[in-house]
C-alpha cells in the first residue's frame, strides 16, 4: 500500500560504461541507463520490463550501488546515498538485497546451504553460532525447505529449490528492499509460479519493497503495482500495472503485450512483430530511440527525442494519441 514517504527515490539515474578497447581511438560509452527516475514505497513492487540489453538489470545494480552511478541521485529512506563509499554502504547492505537469475552463480558451491544462509549474519556480526544455526533452520522452513537442507550443498537441489535458498539468504537480515533480477526467468512455468507466490507472501509478511526485473510482461503484471517499460536505457512508459497492461500507450509496450501467449488458443490476437534487434546502446539512434523499429514512426521521430509525459500514466512518444485507447490526458 502506498505510503507518504518513498523508501527509494531514483532521480535521473545514468550509468554510462566506458569501453576500453584499443581499437577505438576515441572514448566510447555504452549508455546502459540514461536518465531514469521513479519512487518506490515500502511494500510496493515496481516491475522493470524490456528486451535483453535495455538496461533494466543495470538499473537494479546501480541503485544498489554495485556500480557507481555516472549521474543522478539515489535516496534511500530520504537519505542521499549516491556518493556513499563502499565502507559506508556496509550497514545499508542489510536493508537492500538482490536475488539473481541463476542461484548456482550466486551461491558458493563449496559451502553448505547452512553456511551460505549464515554468511550475512557473520558479515554483520549478528548472533552467536547457536543462534545463527537456529535462524538458518527457521529461514529454510520459511522458504518451504526442510531444516536438514542446511547440511547439503547447492548442487544437490533443483533450480526452484536453489532459488528458495537464495531467497532465504536475501531475507535473512530482514531487508526493506529486494531487487529480483530475472529471479524466476530460468524456471519452469509451474516452479516460477511457486517462487513468485513465495516472494509475494514474504513481501506481505515483511513489508518488503520489490524491484522485479523480467522480460516476461505477464509475470511482471502479476506481481507489480507499477510497471516501467525500458528501451535503450530509458523508460518509455511507466504507470500503474493494470493501466500499462490493459491500455498500453507506447508502441513498444503494445508490441511486448501482443507477444504474450493467450491461454485460449482460439482467441483472436494480432501480434505486432518488431523488426530487427534493439540498437546498440553504444550508438543509439538519433531522435526517438525506438524509431528504427516503430511501425508508427514518421519524419519528426527520427529528429526529436520524446520525453516522458507528466501525467500519472507516463509515456515518451510524439504520436501517442494515434494509438487506440489513448486519451493523451
Ligand atoms: Fe514511434 Fe515516433 Fe512514438 Fe518513437 S516517437 S515511439 S518512433 S511514434
TrEMBL record:
BP-aspect Gene Ontology terms: peptide transport; transmembrane transport
Keywords: ATP-binding, Nucleotide-binding, Transport
Gene3D superfamilies in the record: P-loop containing nucleotide triphosphate hydrolases
Protein name as annotated: Putative peptide ABC transporter ATP-binding protein
Family stated for the protein in its record: Belongs to the ABC transporter superfamily.
NADP among keywords: no
Limits of the ABC transporter domain: 8-257
Pfam families: ABC_tran, oligo_HPY
Organism domain of life: Bacteria
The keyword Nucleotide-binding belongs to this UniProt entry's keyword annotation: yes
GO molecular function: ATP binding; ATP hydrolysis activity
InterPro entries tied to this protein: AAA+_ATPase (IPR003593), ABC_transp_ATP-bind (IPR050319), ABC_transporter-like_ATP-bd (IPR003439), ABC_transporter-like_CS (IPR017871), Oligopep_ABC_C (IPR013563), P-loop_NTPase (IPR027417)
